[in-house]
Amino acid sequence: MRAERVLEFVAKQLVDHPDEVRIEVDEDDREVVLELHVHDDDLGKVIGKRGRTAKALRSLVKAAGSLDDENVTVEIVD
Length: 78
Prior knowledge:
Elements: H1 2-14, E1 22-27, E2 32-37, H2 43-47, H3 52-67, E3 72-77
Parallel strand pairs: 2-3
Antiparallel strand pairs: 1-2
Function: A probable RNA-binding protein.
Subcellular location: Cytoplasm
Organism: Egicoccus halophilus
């Protein structure tokens, strides 16, 4: 899945502990939910100030998912 690869690549570039980036995929009939897990110290880097980084990440992944005709959302799990 293209969206999952995009999320993994970008998340690993943002964090200090790229080995601890993990993505869980939860699919149903209408959408795909990608749960992003990162090291506790990296949570702020993935969310960003006022959630701007998280919003940009979600937009990027949603666009990648649309290339595969999938409705993709990202949840950042702490």
